[in-house]
Design brief:
There is one protein chain. The protein is of the alpha+beta class and about 190 residues long. The chain has 2 helices and 11 strands, in the order αβββββββββββα. The strands form 2 sheets. A 6-stranded antiparallel beta sheet has the order 3-6-7-8-9-10, with no helix packed on it.
Length: about 190
């Protein structure tokens, strides 16, 4: 029975759906203080597995998320530090290449200093600090903001789905035939 599950997972991975994979992404070119800054860049990475085979990596299917060097899942979400927090309000990556992230982190000391950052795809990336050093920086998405992701999105050919279904139907037929043959020999 375990062999059948391993075989099924192998077929699913071969079909491009259920294997864990690492992606690196970047957004380049933002508006800052009313001017377009061509080389302003935000980098990140994530790891996930399309467990329900719907073509989308959702937040519950994510095992790592890093934005501008900050690890969210193994980093600040798992900390019990009362002075440092983060949240991921939303995440989805369509395997055809559309990424959406809404995540924030923030911290403060016991006195009066604080810091943080927020990232919302299609809207803005902001960083800030108050207390000892007051500063902030906000980069806004524009029509010129360029998205890049590696590995490149896989767009399956139409025939791929048909071949997968034909192969699964063949395996089901062989399994049924084998079960029927076993039932007849038991009589």
């Amino acid at each position: 029975m375990a062999c059948k599950h391993v075989l099924a997972l192998t077929f699913a991975c071969a079909a491009g759906g259920a294997c864990a994979e690492d992606w690196q992404f970047s957004y380049t070119g933002f508006e800052e203080n009313g001017a377009f800054v061509r080389d302003a860049r935000v980098d990140g990475s994530f790891r996930g597995m399309d467990l329900n085979l719907d073509g989308v990596i959702s937040l519950v299917e994510l095992s790592s998320l890093v934005i501008a060097g900050r690890e969210y899942l193994d980093g600040c979400l798992s900390l019990s530090d009362p002075y440092f927090r983060c949240e991921i309000a939303g995440f989805s990556y369509k395997l055809t290449g559309q990424l959406w992230v809404d995540a924030n982190w923030w911290g403060n000391d016991e006195a009066f200093s604080g810091w943080g950052a927020g990232f919302r795809t299609g809207d803005q990336y902001s960083q800030w600090s108050y207390g000892w050093q007051d500063w902030s920086r906000t980069l806004y998405w524009t029509g010129q903001t360029v998205f890049a992701i590696t590995p490149a999105p896989v767009v399956p050919e139409p025939a791929t789905g048909g071949m997968l279904l034909a192969g699964l139907a063949t395996l089901a037929g062989l399994s049924r035939r084998r079960a029927k043959k076993g039932a007849l020999s038991a009589i």
